[in-house]
Amino acid sequence: MTLDTIPTGLFFIATALYTASTVGYALYLFMQKEKMQHTALSLILAGFIFHAMGTLMVSVQMGTLPIHNLKETLSIAALALSGMFLVLKTKFNLKILGIFAAPLVALMMMAMVALPGAPVPAGSFLKGFWLVSHIILIFSGEAALALACGAGILYILQENAIKAKKRGFFFTRLPSLDLLDSTSYTCVITGFAMLTAGLITGLVYAKAVWGSFWTWDPKEIWSAVTWLVYAALLHGRLTSGWQGRRSAIMTIIGFAVLVFTFLGVNFLIGGHHRGFTM
């Protein structure tokens, strides 16, 4: 049982809604009409609901989360990002962050729909409490860190607009630097905490499956590198006053490392996790 065999229509509908939300947020960025922002938010919420319904149905049929190949991995990543965006939008009311979240979710879903499915081998070992906990925590944490990157990009754009002699396009369309910085910081704290818990559950799962907590698998090494990058960012904020532009740049660098760990390691290096991108 794969994403190809259970209601494909739900995933197509979710993809269409995420894409429409992207258009809505782009129009909101240019025209600043509050109605467009509400419509775009409603569209991404509807997309999340259809996406979650399809994922739940697949999970029930498979007896575990669908995470066996690249198609399923992209779907779970998109679901986590849309869900995390909705949570953080409620907390901070940072409306314009959708201009980063919606297109990223839509692109992942478009890639997921376009990719061919792969049969799940019988007796798959990708089951159990520790595995499910690992997946939920890791993907939720990565989603929060992706949004931190989005807030960091918006921070740099707004700072450049403020410093410019002629305050142009972004100055009137983006929120204050303080709001962008605090949002990014909260996203990093949330993502780092979840990432840490996810790595711990992953170690426990590795012990159960491969007989060792740590096997020097490339994914394990780069996951540790990613963790250290964000640990350095938080340490810098707490002890050295890394705020504003420096923190924003670090969130972008951290997300680049995160993307390489998520996909690049599997494609270019291999290891235990390579099967998730086949």
TrEMBL record:
GO terms for molecular function: heme binding. It is a multi-pass membrane protein. The chain crosses the membrane at residues 6-28, 40-61, 73-89, 96-115, 135-157, 183-206, 221-238, 250-269. Keywords: Cytochrome c-type biogenesis, Membrane, Transmembrane, Transmembrane helix. The keyword Transmembrane helix applies. PANTHER family: CYTOCHROME B_B6 PROTEIN-RELATED (PTHR30071:SF1), HEME EXPORTER PROTEIN C (PTHR30071). This is Cytochrome c-type biogenesis protein CcsB. It comes from Desulfocicer vacuolatum DSM 3385.
